[in-house]
Amino acid sequence: MTKSYLKPCWAAECRLQGVIPILLDDTPKARLEWEHAGGIFVLYQPPERIKGIWDLEYTLGSLCNFTREWREQEAMLGDIRQRVWEEFKKGLWNQAEWVGEPRPHTRGGGEIMATRFGEVVKSTLTMVRAEEEAARVAKPLVTGADLVLLGHKPGIAFGKALKAAKALQDSGERDYSVLLQTAEDML
Amino acid sequence: MKALLCIGGLPGSGKTTLATLLAENGHLYAADDYFMRDGVYQFDPDELPAAHMHCQIRVRNACEGGAERVIVHNTFSNRWEAEPYRAIAEEYGYAFFVVTLGDSAIPLEDLASRNSHQVPLDRLEAMAQGDALSLTADSDPRPPWERD
């Protein structure tokens, strides 16, 4: 009989609830599926169970470091907090691979997690900035509505004028008045 | 970072041993402590609600006092057992972990013979097979004695 809490669905459900489940087991047979489901596995095998204790301590230390890091930094993340968290959660599914390995003489677990944390923040920031830039570049600063407000009547020349303004914008010009003047000059 | 650890597993799986190894400054609690009278374990199912409440109060006090690591070793085979501790951890800013002792190489018969509280085999089987998705959203977070 498989004890129900050894089943990977247990680990997956815990993860959905925001808890990282840690399984100490005396055989490695549940390990792969457990880790795949997002849990952390520690081999806790007699007669050298002390190695399992070391691994568990290391794991707890790493996770505590991460938790502390997150709590200290989340306020500073501002608008991208949720985005960073989502990115980190993707990575957490692989976290077991770093902290779940039986490594009785491990050192520097906290650094691994801290590095990982910094990497996720950095890559998310890069991603967000790139998306913002793409959106900014893609969105025309001068629109037909602007020209109508200035008293121009929509027509064939309108499209050409807007295209010219957009081309200038895409080439790097960010000054709205310059772009608007470019469009107006063509009408 | 302060941490609250819930160590779960079937009776006989070694929760108390593990908890003792991990405990710092004696912040080690279990609902079973309530049933220890003059060094003798005297379990009374009617007193389970009081035992769990007693354990939760002591854990809360430890967290309120700023203990670096607080360990609770109950079976944690149901959501309602873990939920109050998660709430305490959140309230006092503790990192919260659930550590489960698998003991998959040990047959239930052996666990039944070695657990210190004489939990019988049929009860162990029910616990192993039963409502063990302890933290799932659809399992009942209330203890059985508070349900309709």
Short description:
The complex is a heterodimer of chains A (187) and B (148). Chain A is mostly helical and 187 residues long.
Can you characterise this structure?
Chain A is mainly alpha-helical and 187 residues long. Chain A has 2 domains: 4-137, no CATH class; 140-185, no CATH class. Chain A is 65% helix and 5% strand. In chain A, helix 3 (49-77) packs parallel to helix 6, helix 4 (81-92) packs across helix 6 (109-138) and helix 8 (156-170) packs antiparallel against helix 9. The radius of gyration of chain A is 27 Å and the shape is rod-shaped. The model of chain A is unreliable at 100-111 (pLDDT under 50). Chain B has 148 residues and is of the alpha/beta class. In chain B, strand 3 and strand 4 form a beta hairpin. Chain B starts with a strand and ends in a 19-residue tail after the last helix. Chain B has a single domain (3-69, 84-138), classed as Rossmann fold. The interface between A and B is medium-sized, with 34 and 34 residues. Strand 1 (21-25) of chain A pairs parallel with strand 6 of chain B, so a sheet runs across the interface.
Portion in helices of chain A: 55-70%
For the biggest sheet of chain A, the summary is: 2 strands, parallel
Helix/strand structural class of chain B: alpha/beta
Biggest sheet overview of chain B: 4 strands, parallel
Helix fraction bin of chain B: 25-40%
- Greatest chain-chain interface? A-B, 34 and 34 residues
**Which structural category fits the helices and strands of chain A?**
mainly alpha
Distance between the termini of chain A: 81 Å
The quaternary structure here is: heterodimer
How does the overall form of chain B come out from the CA principal axes?
Answer: globular
Number of domains of chain A: 2
Nearest-integer average pLDDT of chain A: 76
Q: Name the average pLDDT of chain B.
A: 82
For this structure, the CATH topology of chain B is Rossmann fold
The counted number of beta strands of chain B is 6
As for the number of domains of chain B, it is 1
Order of helices and strands of chain B: EHEEEHEHEHH
> Radius of gyration of chain B over alpha carbons?
15 Å
